[in-house]
Design goal:
The longest helix is centred in the C-terminal third of the chain and has 25 residues. This protein has a single domain, classed as 3-Layer(aba) Sandwich (Rossmann fold). The chain has a four-stranded parallel beta sheet with strand order 2-1-3-4, sandwiched between helices. With 155 residues, it is an alpha/beta fold. The mean pLDDT is 96. The radius of gyration is 14 Å and the shape is globular. The chain is built from six helices and four strands.
């Protein structure tokens, strides 16, 4: 089983959105027995809190089931537990590396890198723009799933 951990600052907006989007894409591709997704935060600020109402609203608008979730913090052990540790922006990547120490196996990625982009996924906590965040998350998740499907079919 391939395991993916989506990571953002608080684990209530972007990473939970990515977790729900990716789970929906995986289910649509009939790959639920091959790919597992989860999400976590780099900070402790929102631990225990549910997804942000803006994330929930956008996912419902797009008819994507919201994964039941409470914010958790990423741990050093997550590095061994997951195949992909996917941050939403450059600050997330720095903090992920601080948590795990280093990335000797090349498991840490920025989500938009799968779509061939260098940019960050803007944090809607600050921007209020859940539409833009959703578009970027969907683009990154679709590209990541395409890469994993190619990897699985070549194995």
């Amino acid at each position: 089983m391939i395991k993916i951990l989506f990571v953002c600052h608080g684990n209530i907006c972007r990473s939970t959105m990515a977790e729900s989007v990716m789970a929906h894409l995986i289910q649509s591709a009939n790959l639920t027995h091959q790919i597992h997704v989860a999400s976590a935060a780099t900070s402790r600020e929102e631990i225990g809190n549910p997804p942000h109402h803006g994330t929930v609203s956008k996912l419902r608008q797009m008819k994507i089931p919201v994964i039941p979730h409470r914010a958790v913090q990423m741990t050093r052990q997550d590095y061994q537990a997951y195949d992909y540790l996917v941050g939403m922006d450059s600050a997330n990547i720095r903090n992920m590396l601080r948590i795990v120490g280093s990335d000797p196996e090349g498991k840490i990625y920025k989500l938009l890198s799968f779509a061939g982009k260098e940019g960050d996924i803007a944090d809607p906590w600050y921007t209020g723009n859940f539409d833009e965040t959703y578009q970027d998350v969907m683009e990154g998740c679709q590209a990541l799933l395409t890469q994993i499907q190619a990897q699985v079919s070549n194995a």
